[in-house]
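Long-time lurker. I teach an intro course on protein structure, and each term I like to show students one example going from raw sequence to a predicted 3D structure in token notation. This year I'd like something fresh instead of my usual example. Would anyone be willing to generate the tokens for the chain below so I can use it in lecture? Attribution to the forum is fine with me.
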Amino acid sequence: AVIGALVSIQGRANGALARDVGDAIGAAALGFILGWVIITVLLFTNAQHRAGLRAIPSLLRAGQLRWWLLLGGLGGATLVASQGFAVPVLGVSLFTVALVAGQTTSSLEVDRLGLGPSGRLHPSRSRVFASVISVVAVVVAINPFSNAISFQPVAVFVCLFAGTLVSAQQAFNGRVAMATGSPIAAAWMNFSVGGIMLWSL
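-- Reply from a regular --
Happy to contribute to a lecture. Here you go:
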């Protein structure tokens, strides 16, 4: 719940920054710099987290980690970039609803494929029902029968796509954190990979 509230605040801040600098990708890259600096300080002030980061090459060589599990930061970078693009158009509330809809529905497939640390989890009726509710929530939030809103389908699609990548990111991060014994090491890889993506665009 706390993280959800912070993501809403992040969306508002990134949307305002993107509007001010006139570039959603540039705003996302600036935000990633700050996040990377904070995570780096946390990483290098704790021996356990440093050991977790140093263990990644050996885990890759031993096959305990797949190289593509380190690419979760691409999902985070897409999320932050989508905030700068979509929040000024849709507002924070509709952005969040669309993001959660994409994240919830795609999470069912992520679990079914066993991408997360818990292995394969077949969709239950309650989780499928929750996914349907999240999609209905997008329609309700958009309110297509109202003339008071200018519907922006591209912005909504971007939010849904970002939510899809975020669900995969969470699964990848969980596996990296479990293998290294350090969620901070997994987060540092996220910010590093995502930052490289944003700064190369």
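Some talking points for your students: The mean pLDDT is 86. The radius of gyration is 18 Å.
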